[in-house]
Design goal:
Length: 404
Amino acid sequence: MFPPLNEQLDHIKRGTAEIIPEEELARKIERAIKEKTPLRVKLGCDPSRPDLHLGHSVVLRKLRQFQDLGHTAILIVGDFTGMIGDPSGRNKARPSMTLEETRQNGETYFSQASRILSKDNLQIVYNSDWLGKMSFQDVIKLASKYTVARMLERDDFEKRFHAEEPISVHEFLYPLAQAMDSVAIKADIELGGTDQKFNLLVGRDIQREFGMEPQIILTMPLLVGTDGVEKMSKSLGNYIAITDPPAEMYGKTLSIPDDLIYDYFVLTTDIPESDIARIKSELESKSINPRDLKRRLAREIVTLYYGDGAAAEAEDDFDRVFIRKEVPDEVEEFLIADDASPLTVFQLLVSVGAAKSNGEARRLVNQGGVSIDGSKVADPNAPVNSDAPFILKVGKRKFYKIRR
């Protein structure tokens, strides 16, 4: 039913930041093999951010590895904890949400996560099912099992405390509520990003308080975004969404800095360990052009979500547009009114949706990001007089066919 212990550990350790404690993980796996009982591997999903990107995929893919090894994945939709708001890694509390909002976002999260996870040995649960039933007396008893001093060991709380920034009492309840998730589902292992380490450790402590064997903690690195500076985030615009069209996913991958190539291969692809070692060697010895490795990386990522055919098409589309300087085969077409007062360039950009405002449109032109039929536009106020269809290009990847 299960692969041997060493084989499982090799898979589990790949790309992992920390396992706490590793020797207990080995014992749990040995017992699972002996008793032919899968481990219960927990991942809590954040319903405040329903749009998933490759940063989210790092921990989801680790959860999938546990599934492939024969264990049970338990995806907890934090619809109740989402109403509290977790400030982990932030210098202020995250805004809380309504239960309806968290439920809707949770459904969106799962529909995207299903592109990574197997449906065969997967359980989906909502933590409002048990947290919503706790009385105030239950909450007080739970709170009595942890001290304020221990809570202030969490990095973001400690910084805010010393900076004399407010910390609401309800924020202390978030890690306790997350710990109750582990109690409720009897988690053997909990996964999370390195920024979740404190919360995951609280889960171990609270499980002990309830007379349970504590869960193993497995943390994954936070994937740096395409800017090479900040962790991947939609709000920062440095993300690659797992639902991006193949051509866009391919192009965004090629834009990552060279020093992220190795990490991306380890954390976002399934290539064999022997290939990973060779890539590391090639990068260190500079025996290969990083561009060629990024092209392979882009193909691997697109293949994971769309298949080999889509990856080949995405690469061909990229080469046609950015290397051979041709126009893509499929270009959105817009019809503009044929009247006596022609549009200016910035008005055209707004009318086709390439810019949200006149000011943004002017900035795009002034930054050299707009061309018509291959000729760069220098004046945002220039009239668009052409009666024949023409191609409007905005930035590196947006094309529009304009006709009257």
